[in-house]
Design brief:
The structure holds three protein chains of three kinds. By secondary structure, chain B is mainly α. Chain B contains twelve helices and no strands. By secondary structure, chain C is mainly α. Classes of the chains: A alpha/beta, B mainly alpha, C mainly alpha.
Chain lengths: 349, 304, 323
């Protein structure tokens, strides 16, 4: 078994707030093998973006990695200094950022910003770098002449494509796509994603896809993890999670996404209420407040990770009741009544 | 807790939000040590200014004579005169105290006028753009093109050298700074989605300006207001230093003018230093308060 | 870009005209005989009559205005009451003295302010940052004339390192521009007032730069530039600073106005024979032709400063150019 490309072990990352620590990521573990795509799914505020920040280690002063390891090609990134991280950044791991709007510096031409990344890491001449930038632009479908333009002259979709071009500039082993399609409309979304995949086949890199869109993960990833309130609820490869889901949250998420095959009169079933506050996190199962199947033990104790079948991990107390849970989860009424418990405030993140 | 706010009517909700915003502002303001020091100093000067005629030991304009009839000129600090006397025998401490009142009146009034004019010009100019923006910005440029000290000097020679004219002239000149800053803020706010949303939902222009944009630029206006006080006090002192001050109201600048024209500043440190230190302290305290507030008003600055 | 420059230039010229008009109105408002701005009562009646005719004072006000404008363009400021010679000569002389003081001062003020401001913004929360900020606020809070006197005391009286004022040692007569302004004697007299102004006025761009940088450092593209593996210095100086310079460009005009006001005060303290000091003494002596001309030139400097600031803005912000 070769060394995994990226292995995260018990990562804890906290934000320092005026009323305490916000435990955005509170002990998660997963691994990505070279060449495969990994999807990290969860709703807003569950800590997915924090994972990105932790891996690439670009974060504000009031944030710190409290514990755990981030092993990239076997080497732990957590204790590395800013200058040591510079060799890893972009060359090995690059990021397609979430907000296309602000990712590019408005006072410099787009081409220059990509060229800068190339020149920083590779010993090529300025002219060669220019050529490479033009190639990258063609690759993502932007007219190479437009490298001389400024970000404000690009449309939203084009900016995101420019970001992709930039992320690919150094042929990294791992590309982290942080909600790459959120700011875009559906059609552009699809185009962008097809492009990313096409390129990936060419360059043989892995993609860590961070998204709330479980359907996107289903189509494009090999393995996935479902994240909720800073912890992983279920983790396995994609078809086992879809065909053999165990965790109530996973089941709920699948319901919440529009299915073109469903009848028109069938409105979406959403999971009621909201995630708990991460400043004062609960000691019990994080999902118990919204879980229609929770019982006494769920309120008292946090379930550990169980390997229900080889390479399929779930964090739930009620794995034995799975058949019943699956049946009931498919019914609308289950989710509408929901569970009555003390409601906690929304996450502040 | 969140539910309570949403069940109130529009006006009540705004009041609750405002009270909440005030509390939050004070909570963050408290955290700035410099801001608190500034506030404390301002309060101290305020008290001195208000009580000036009561606490000054002597009449600041009166010449003091010793028991033997000699003029008590240029005496270093002593028990009777804590800050010594001027060349003409006047008590320095009393002069400095009465200067406090003068400085605060000038500062606060000027800042008030500057704030109102600057805010509105910035709002309208930034929001409407086009002809109005051009017109207002041309006016701003013209005002910018006129150097204040020369203008003040000439104007005060034409009119009388009174403190009210000084305040008026200064107010007429300082608003462009605030206006420009507010305008650029409005320009960037204009592009934000929430303004477009308001426009699409049918809000008329004045409503957008005063209800949506203004509250967002108000903090910046206050910050500038604080700085305007500091500027006004300094500028008034400068006008007085050149000899154009109001002869009846004793400004700290006038005191320094007296020292300088007598050319004894290297000897009579007790006469030269206190007014300058006072100006420094007041200006500093308004800067601190302005800056502390700026940290709150501009959330991006926190903890980066 | 060319349209931008032309537009700005046109506006600048218009501003100068308006300034001249305002001065015309202002000086006509002086108490007493309006002709006092041109004719000194001390002159003989024949000369008065001649001047009255030359300056069109026997004509209606509107015509007087045009004559005034025409005269200005030709550089005719009138005859000084105090000195009896053409006002233009006195003013022109002083004009260069002021330029050679202000330009180096502002240049160093900005250089010093921008670089230090950018650096301390990056080192936010450190002891260096706090001490620099407090130091610059304290310095900047004292009025410049007071600070200048202290400066003078420390470096010219207590430790007699520099002269206590004036522009050159009495008795020194330079031949022509080069000898006057580039001699060691001149530089020797220039250092203290320039240093004083540079440090004092530098605090302003320092604080603006810091604020602007802090705002920019919070932007997403800064995070991305770090993620690209760029060095810290590159991130600060290439990305953050460049974007943060925009408010600085706007502030040049503001600081220009401050510095012009400040130069009046600094010239007074250092007995520097410049435009500001000339104007103050002219007003006090009721030498109106000189006062008028000096005022106009000072205003011209400020307007020119605005123009420079607009140009800088255009260079630094591509969004203005390509809109």
């Amino acid at each position: 078994m070769m060394t995994p490309l990226l292995e995260i072990l018990g990562l804890k990352a906290y934000y320092s707030m005026h009323n305490g620590f916000c435990r955005a990521v509170d002990g998660i573990s997963f691994k990505i093998i070279q060449g495969e795509n990994f999807g990290l799914v969860g709703e807003s505020g569950c800590g997915k973006s924090t994972v990105v920040k932790s891996i690439i280690k670009v974060f504000p002063k009031y944030f710190r990695i409290e514990g755990g390891k981030i092993l990239f090609k076997g080497k732990d990134l957590v204790p590395l200094s800013y200058n040591e991280m510079r060799k890893v950044r972009w060359e090995e791991i690059s990021v397609i950022p979430q907000s296309a709007m602000n990712a590019l510096n408005p006072v410099y031409k787009v081409g220059i910003q990509i060229k800068e990344a190339i020149l920083e890491h590779e010993d090529v001449s300025s002219k060669e770098a220019d050529e490479r930038v033009k190639e990258l632009f063609s690759l993502v479908g932007i007219d190479p002449k437009r490298t001389e333009e400024y970000p404000h002259q690009f449309s939203g979709g084009m900016k995101q494509r420019a970001n992709i071009a930039m992320a690919l500039a150094l042929n990294p082993s791992l590309i982290i796509a942080d909600e790459p399609t959120t700011a875009l409309d559906v059609i552009v979304q699809d185009q962008i994603f097809q492009r990313i995949l096409g390129i990936q086949k060419q360059l043989k890199c892995s993609i860590l896809l961070i998204t709330h869109d479980i359907a996107l993960v289903a189509e494009n990833c090999d393995k996935m993890a479902v994240m909720y309130a800073g912890k992983i609820m279920e983790y396995s490869d994609v078809h086992r999670i879809f065909n053999n889901s165990y965790h109530p949250y996973t089941l709920g998420l699948r319901n919440a996404f529009p299915n073109i095959n469903r009848s028109k009169s069938d409105p979406l079933v959403s999971i009621p209420k909201s995630p708990p506050s991460l400043v004062d996190p609960p000691i019990q199962c994080r999902f118990c407040f919204r879980c229609p199947f929770s019982t006494q033990i769920c309120w008292e104790e946090e379930p550990g990770m169980t390997e229900i079948e080889p390479n399929h991990f779930v964090s739930c107390h009620h794995l034995s009741r799975v058949e019943e849970i699956r049946k009931r989860a498919a019914m609308r009424e289950t989710w509408e009544t929901g569970d009555e418990g003390p409601s906690k405030e929304r996450i502040v993140s | 807790m969140a539910n309570k706010a949403s069940t109130l009517s529009g006006r009540g909700k705004m009041q609750l939000e405002f009270a909440e915003a005030c509390r939050r502002t004070w909570h963050f303001f408290k955290q700035s040590k410099l801001g608190l020091i500034g506030l404390f100093l301002i309060l101290m000067f305020l008290v001195i200014g208000i009580l000036a005629p009561l606490i000054a030991p002597y009449d600041p304009f009166a010449k003091n004579y010793s028991d033997s009839g000699r003029l008590k000129g240029l005496l270093p600090p002593s028990k009777e005169h804590w800050l010594g006397t001027t060349l003409y025998g006047r008590d320095v401490l009393s002069q400095v105290i009465s200067g406090t009142r003068n400085a605060l009146i000038v500062g606060v009034l000027t800042a008030f006028f500057v704030g109102i004019i600057g805010l509105n010009v910035g709002l309208f100019s930034g929001y409407y753009g086009g002809f109005i923006d051009n017109l207002l910005m041309r006016i701003t440029d013209i005002v910018y093109g006129i150097p204040i000290l020369p203008f003040a000097i000439v104007t005060l020679s034409i009119l009388t050298r009174s403190i009210w004219w000084i305040i008026s002239v200064m107010s007429m000149f300082y608003w462009p700074t605030t206006a420009r800053v507010i305008r650029s803020q409005v320009l960037s706010l204009k592009e934000r989605p929430f303004i477009e949303a308001a426009r699409i939902s049918g809000a008329n222009h004045l409503r957008i300006i005063y209800k949506h944009i203004a509250p967002n630029v108000l903090p910046q206006t206050f910050v500038h207001g604080a700085f305007a006080v500091a500027w006004a006090i300094t500028t008034e002192a400068s006008i007085c230093f050149l000899g154009f001050g109001d002869p009846y109201s004793l400004s700290w600048g006038t005191i320094i003018f007296d020292v300088f024209t007598s050319q004894v500043m290297y000897r009579a440190w007790w006469w030269f230093l206190p007014p300058g230190i006072c100006i420094m302290l007041v200006v500093m305290s308004f800067y601190f308060v302005g800056r502390a507030y700026e940290e709150i008003a501009n959330p991006r600055l926190k903890g980066v | 870009m060319k349209t931008y420059i032309f537009k700005r230039l046109a506006l600048t010229i218009m501003a100068i005209f308006i300034l001249a008009t305002i001065i015309f109105i202002l000086f006509r408002m002086l108490p007493g005989d309006p002709t006092m701005t041109v004719i000194s009562p001390a002159l003989s009646p024949e000369v008065q009559q001649e001047l009255r005719h030359r300056f069109g004072l026997d004509k209606p006000l509107i015509e007087q205005y045009f004559v005034y404008m025409k005269n200005l363009i030709c550089g005719e400021f009138g005859v000084s009451f105090q000195h009896g010679i053409k006002a233009y000569e006195i003013i022109a002389d002083r004009f260069w003295n002021t330029i050679f003081l202000m330009v180096p001062s502002l240049f160093f003020a900005y250089l010093f302010g921008v670089i230090i401001g950018a650096y301390i913004a990056y080192k936010r929360g450190s002891k260096t940052e706090i001490s620099v900020i407090v130091g610059s606020i304290v310095l900047r809070s004292g009025p410049i004339f007071w600070v200048a006197i202290i400066f003078l005391y420390l470096f010219a009286v207590k430790i007699p390192l520099f002269p206590t004022g004036h522009m050159r040692t009495p008795g020194y007569m330079g031949q022509g521009i080069f000898q006057t302004f580039f001699s060691l004697d001149f530089l020797y007299h220039l250092i203290l007032p320039t240093l004083c102004m540079a440090i004092y006025y530098g605090c302003y761009p320092l604080l603006i730069m810091r604020t602007s940088m802090l705002e920019v450092l919070g932007e997403d593209f800064i995070d991305l530039s770090k993620a690209k593996g760029l060095s810290e210095l590159r991130v600060i100086f290439k990305h953050a600073m460049r974007t943060s310079l925009l408010p600085i460009a706007t502030s040049v005009s503001l600081l220009g106005a401050y510095a012009v006001a400040g130069s009046v005060l600094v010239e007074t303290v250092f007995s520097w024979p410049g435009l500001g000091r000339l104007m103050v003494s002219a007003v006090l002596d009721s030498d109106y032709p000189v006062a008028q001309g000096a005022f106009l030139l000072i205003g011209l400097l400020v307007v020119a400063g605005n123009f420079v600031s607009d140009m800088l803005n255009g260079i630094l912000d591509p969004r203005i150019r390509y809109r």
